[in-house]
Amino acid sequence: MNTLFIRHKKLRMKKLITLLVMVIPMVVWAQADYSMYQTIYLKPDLKNLKTLGENLAAHNKKFHSEGPHSAVVWQVVSGPKSGGMVWAMGPCTFSDLDNRPAGDDHQSDWRDNVLSLLKDASNVEYWRQIDDLSVGAGGPPSPMIRVRYSSVVRGQGYRVRGLFKKMSDAIKAMEGDQTWGVYVNELQQGYENGRHWATTSGFDSWSEFDEDGTFRETFVKVHGENSWVPFLNEIREVFSNTWDEMWRLRPDLSGVDLGN
Fold it and tell me: Looking at the 3D structure of the chain, how many domains does it have?
């Protein structure tokens, strides 16, 4: 089961804790015990939208329906990339990329029946889940997710994990079944491109944005009465830029049977 951007249950803290930061990652190439996802932004040619959907669904169900090469498709519904899609494969490792579907039948189908109907396919990235910072990994994808991207101020990358650890400890102390995903971009993109870390929160509907959150209250209980303002200051010092995208799950286009 592709568990990219796993379901987040009862996330009352959604408005406050979905933070991303950037630090140039150091990849441990010899270690294979991890979960990673390849993502690609697809910009459809609106004149061919119906045919593209049919072809993309058929491609994914034929070549990306199970195992490390399984694929899930998301519709981008906010931000500059609205109207586009994100194709996500995994969970996998770099070693799995060496035996991904790449035969002539796969390549020709992707080229002739998918790429030919797009205006662009870009931002190919590899996102590694950070297990010790994530909370409650597992389960099917949410109907909607908020993905927050960000950059870190040059020279401040060493502070990122400590900041995430404070957030993770607070989330674990909250009531309910909390799930919070933390991902690092495995390949360096410099300080101008950003998108070096990502966190995800799941939603069943837009109405959840109107719910009050309890993250701040819990954070103060965990870290002390005078911890909140220094926490906000640290965020401003470490992160130079953050931005959100809302994604809506497209089970009809995905290779994985999501039961929807």
Answer: 1
